[in-house]
Design goal:
alpha/beta; globular; binds zinc ion
Length: 250
């Protein structure tokens, strides 16, 4: 089965739902500045990759899954000072998520899996809220929250340091999935920026500039590689699959 939900016909969806439990995976991204070298839709690419790596593993566990069209808009105020960033309110983003969940629930989907790679604190807080409210609707929701220590510890050292926006971690993921969208000249001249975004968040920084990222990146883009990207997709997908299996008890 082709996992792209948007490419299926309605009889195909109907047949899948009749055959057994079906998970809908929603890739959650942003349209946001990601350094001088990565595209605005970096988080969409990463979340879609996470979903694509998860589907075969879910199938191995006997769970059918479709990948929904990604949500490309999210709260992204930290990057609002950079050209190209489009930030929407948390309330608007949550309302869309809840409406999608209601629709899936009414059709008989067994679980909504949230594949998120946009770690803006306002977005993460919104997703935690939304997950609680979706569960209250009666739809199982699987949310692998990589900002929680337990999952963060499974990812790379740079990610755990908090210097994790358009650095080695994200750049590797884009190089693995869409290398043609990486500006290699800009990547190779991006100097190391070890400033920790997550530490800056806790100290009250409200923008990337205040957090020490005048070019909208943190970390070490020059260290990135497609090989690291593949390894990280496997880790991201594993966490998502675990979250789904916990929800469905399979
Ligand atoms: Zn990102």
């Amino acid at each position: 089965m082709n996992p792209a939900f948007a490419h299926a016909t309605w009889p195909q969806i109907k047949a899948a739902l009749a055959a057994g439990p079906v998970v809908a995976i929603l890739p959650l991204g942003a349209t946001e500045a990601h350094g001088p070298h990565l595209p605005l839709n970096t988080d969409v690419i990463i979340s879609e990759g996470m979903a694509q790596y998860a589907v075969p593993e879910l199938e191995d566990a006997g769970v059918a899954a479709f990948i929904l069209p990604a949500l490309a808009f999210a709260p992204a105020e930290y990057a609002a000072g950079f050209a190209g960033t489009i930030s929407i309110s948390a309330s608007a983003a949550k309302a869309v998520l809840l409406d999608i969940a209601r629709s899936l629930h009414a059709q008989g989907f067994a679980c909504l899996a949230l594949a998120n790679s946009h770690f803006d604190p306002a977005n993460v807080a919104m997703l935690r809220d939304a997950a609680t409210e979706i569960a209250a609707l009666g739809l199982k929701v699987a949310f692998a929250d990589f900002t929680r220590r337990k999952l963060a510890q499974t990812l790379t050292e740079e990610f755990q340091s908090g210097a994790c926006h358009a650095g080695q971690f994200e750049t590797s993921l884009v190089m693995a999935a869409r290398p043609e969208l990486v500006d290699e000249t800009a990547r190779r001249s991006a100097q190391d920026n070890p400033a920790s975004l997550t530490e800056a968040f806790t100290k009250g920084a409200k923008t990337f500039e205040q957090a020490g990222g005048p070019q909208a990146y943190f970390g070490f883009p020059q260290q990135a590689s497609a090989e690291e990207g593949v390894r990280t997709y496997e880790l991201l997908a594993k966490a998502l699959v675990t979250a789904v299996r916990e929800q469905l008890a399979v």
